[in-house]
């Protein structure tokens, strides 16, 4: 039995290997003893497994696979239920052993028998659960089927579908309520009234329209105009917030250690780092927090382009504006597979970038430039701007600093391995009107969020004065 267990299992079963061994012995004995009956028996024992092997590869069962994830996209550290429905569509009988191939991070691949005991209508249904501690897109499947011939002599294993993609989005961290909403208010609603005439009554009234309730009739204005007038309804404007997500490789790497991940066979590994993962979680959390306050959101990168243009999981890569529950879901899916971009594929490119910084070249020439400023100017003073940044040079900080003048409130979080060394960068941003803090990847996100309220009040007031001065200057 030990010898049989050491033989390849993808060609013949133990029974098939046994017949081949018996056939070889019969042929050997026929040669030694000169017996024709042993020769015929040996040929039969050898040919039968070989014919069975050829038969199951020519006439193999065919299946149809349906796979469903519930929920279809799942947050990190949450479970999704995978439901499989498998039906036989071609010739074939007997039981089949099937296995669902999974990326290594999900553990052992589940195996099951077809048909299932509870099969109905020729379709067998199976269910299992998955959980991932990291975001990304993962190929679940394909299902592989291993079946034998009617005599159980030979084996054949092949994939019966192509698999499906499971999207794992970053989980939002609950943020405490703060005063960061700015001029639009914490409730996410701004009330305005149409002011057509200087009269106090006319400011709040309009002509009666069919269907208006009589309780809203404004009688003094009705007497003055000689026609029914009603109190003007308040119009509600949707506040806006802009998030600048810096996903440059050079901004989230220091040397070679912090950056990890490379594209794998299942497409699940991302080029990322601890600081960038902190920024991604912050982007998701801030989006969920502001969406609850009825904010519409806009995502830009450091160059002013749509932040998710290079994300393989983005439903609309060229879109940068999101609103409502559908918009929040689109943001979550876009953040699932976003990764660091820019030169990072070799030591030569990395050294070239470092030499450029050392030589004093302006690293801000392609980021935080006029394209970003034009995008912010198009939505001037409509709401807060939050910049989630990696490590940056002083020149980059000075280039970004004037952008605060386009925001009702401007907040910058610099995520770096060495926050204590960012004093000059933070000062440059604050002089431009930003409320800027530096944090490490180990910092609690809620703590960093509340720091804007708990920080030096005089410093925040000075930042607001700078923004107002910039706005007046324009």
What does this structure look like?
This protein has 474 residues and is an alpha/beta fold. The chain contains 13 helices and 22 strands. The protein has helices spanning 2-5, 14-33, 36-58, 200-203, 219-225, 274-292, 324-336, 347-358, 370-377, 394-400, 423-431, 445-454, 457-473, and strands spanning 63-70, 73-75, 79-88, 96-100, 111-114, 123-131, 136-140, 143-148, 155-159, 164-169, 190-192, 205-207, 229-231, 235-237, 240-245, 259-260, 272-273, 296-300, 321-322, 385-389, 410-415, 435-439. The strands form 7 sheets. A 6-stranded mixed sheet has the order 19-18-15-20-21-22, with helices on both faces. Strand 21 (410-415), helix 11 and strand 22 form a beta-alpha-beta unit. Helix 6 (274-292) packs antiparallel against helix 7 (324-336) and helix 10 (394-400) packs parallel to helix 11.
List the topology elements.
Layout: H1 2-5, H2 14-33, H3 36-58, E1 63-70, E2 73-75, E3 79-88, E4 96-100, E5 111-114, E6 123-131, E7 136-140, E8 143-148, E9 155-159, E10 164-169, E11 190-192, H4 200-203, E12 205-207, H5 219-225, E13 229-231, E14 235-237, E15 240-245, E16 259-260, E17 272-273, H6 274-292, E18 296-300, E19 321-322, H7 324-336, H8 347-358, H9 370-377, E20 385-389, H10 394-400, E21 410-415, H11 423-431, E22 435-439, H12 445-454, H13 457-473
Parallel strand pairs: 2-10, 15-18, 15-20, 20-21, 21-22
Antiparallel strand pairs: 1-3, 3-6, 4-5, 4-8, 7-10, 8-9, 11-14, 12-13, 16-17, 18-19
Helix pairs in contact: 2-3, 6-7, 10-11
């Amino acid at each position: 039995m030990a010898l049989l267990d050491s033989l390849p299992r993808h060609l013949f079963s133990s029974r098939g290997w046994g017949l081949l061994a018996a056939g070889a012995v019969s042929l050997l004995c026929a040669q030694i003893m000169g017996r024709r009956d042993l020769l015929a028996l040996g040929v039969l024992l050898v040919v039968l497994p070989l014919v069975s092997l050829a038969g199951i590869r020519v006439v193999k069962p065919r299946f149809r696979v349906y796979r469903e994830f519930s929920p279809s996209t799942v947050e990190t550290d949450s479970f999704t239920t995978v439901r499989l429905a498998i039906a036989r569509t071609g010739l074939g009988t007997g039981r089949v052993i099937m296995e669902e191939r999974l990326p290594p991070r999900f553990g052992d691949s589940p195996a099951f028998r077809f048909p299932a005991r509870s099969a109905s209508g020729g379709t067998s249904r199976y269910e299992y659960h998955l959980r991932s501690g990291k975001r990304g897109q993962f190929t679940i499947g394909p299902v592989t089927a291993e079946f034998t011939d009617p005599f159980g002599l030979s084996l054949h294993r092949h994939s019966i579908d192509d698999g499906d993609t499971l999207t794992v989005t970053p989980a939002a961290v609950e943020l405490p309520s703060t005063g960061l909403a700015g001029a639009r208010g914490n409730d996410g609603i701004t009330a305005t009234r149409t002011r057509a005439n200087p009269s106090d009554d006319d400011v709040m009234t309009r002509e009666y329209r069919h269907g208006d309730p009589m309780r809203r009739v404004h009688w003094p204005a009705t007497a003055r105009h000689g026609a029914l007038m009603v109190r003007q309804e308040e119009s509600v404007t949707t506040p806006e917030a802009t998030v600048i997500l810096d996903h440059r490789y050079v901004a989230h790497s220091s040397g070679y250690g912090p950056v990890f991940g490379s594209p794998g066979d299942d497409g699940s590994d991302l080029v990322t780092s601890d600081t960038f993962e902190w920024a991604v979680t912050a982007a998701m959390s801030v989006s969920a927090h502001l969406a609850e306050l009825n904010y519409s959101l806009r995502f830009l990168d450091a160059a002013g382009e749509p932040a998710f243009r290079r994300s393989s999981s983005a439903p609309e890569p060229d879109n940068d504006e999101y609103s409502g529950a559908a918009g929040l879901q689109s943001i979550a899916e876009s953040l699932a597979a976003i990764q660091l971009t820019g030169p990072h594929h070799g030591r030569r490119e990395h050294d070239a970038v470092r030499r450029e910084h050392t030589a004093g070249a302006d690293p801000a020439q392609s980021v935080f430039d006029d394209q970003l400023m034009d995008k912010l100017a198009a939505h001037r003073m409509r709401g807060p701007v939050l910049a989630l940044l990696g490590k940056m040079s002083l020149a980059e900080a000075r280039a970004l600093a004037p952008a605060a003048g386009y925001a009702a409130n401007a907040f910058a979080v610099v995520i770096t391995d060495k926050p204590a060394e960012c004093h000059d960068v933070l000062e440059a941003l604050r002089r431009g009107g930003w409320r800027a803090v530096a944090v490490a990847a180990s910092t609690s996100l809620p703590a960093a969020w509340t720091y804007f309220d708990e920080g030096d009040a005089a410093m925040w007031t000075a930042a607001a004065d700078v923004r107002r001065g910039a706005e007046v200057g324009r």
